[in-house]
Amino acid sequence: MNKRSNANDTPQRHAVPPPPVLFDLDGTLVDSAYQHVLAWHETFTDFRLDIPNWKIHRRIGMSGSFFLSPLLREIGHSTNPAVIKRLEKSHAKYFTRRIKPSASSPARANSCNTFPKSACLGPSPLVVSVLKPKSL
User: pTM of the predicted model, to two decimals?
Assistant: First the structure.
């Protein structure tokens, strides 16, 4: 007697689930605010601009057009595009020295507490961030 094969008769393979994907849309998983403040402080010091850290800190997270130009206007300094470009280049240099790939907030360390347990087994999560490459 021939028995017809049925898909349900064969043992099912247990596929390895793909790694979970974590989207960092607002930069809270990689908290770089303090590194930015210190990098801007070093930049402004190099350019002989005396700007207190609290004035820098309150603007961290704003887009470029809301950060440098208004801050420079506030202290009566030129907002010439060439000057702004030099400041941004200097900031990038100092920021790159300060930031480390592992610099993250406790949220990242505890991310497995947020996801179902099965999402934290197997491959490491893939983190997708909206930070600009020069900010990493």
Answer: 0.58
Q: What percent of the chain has pLDDT over 90?
A: 35
Whether 14 is in a domain gets the answer no
Whether residue 75 lies inside any domain: the answer is: yes
Q: Is residue 21 part of a domain?
A: no
Distance of alpha carbon 97 from alpha carbon 109, whole angstroms: 23
- Could you tell me if 50 and 44 are in contact, meaning their C-beta atoms sit under 8 angstroms apart? yes
Q: Is the backbone of residue 113 left (phi > 0), alpha (psi -120 to 50) or beta?
A: alpha
- Please tell me the distance from the alpha carbon of residue 40 to that of residue 80, in angstroms, as a whole number: 18
User: Beta partners for 128?
Assistant: 23
Between the alpha carbon of residue 93 and those of residues 67, 114, 117, the distances in Å are 18, 35, 40
Question: pLDDT, tens digit, for every residue of 51-101?
Answer: 999 999 999 888 766 889 999 999 999 889 999 999 999 999 999 898 865
* Cβ 12 vs Cβ 118: under 8 Å: no
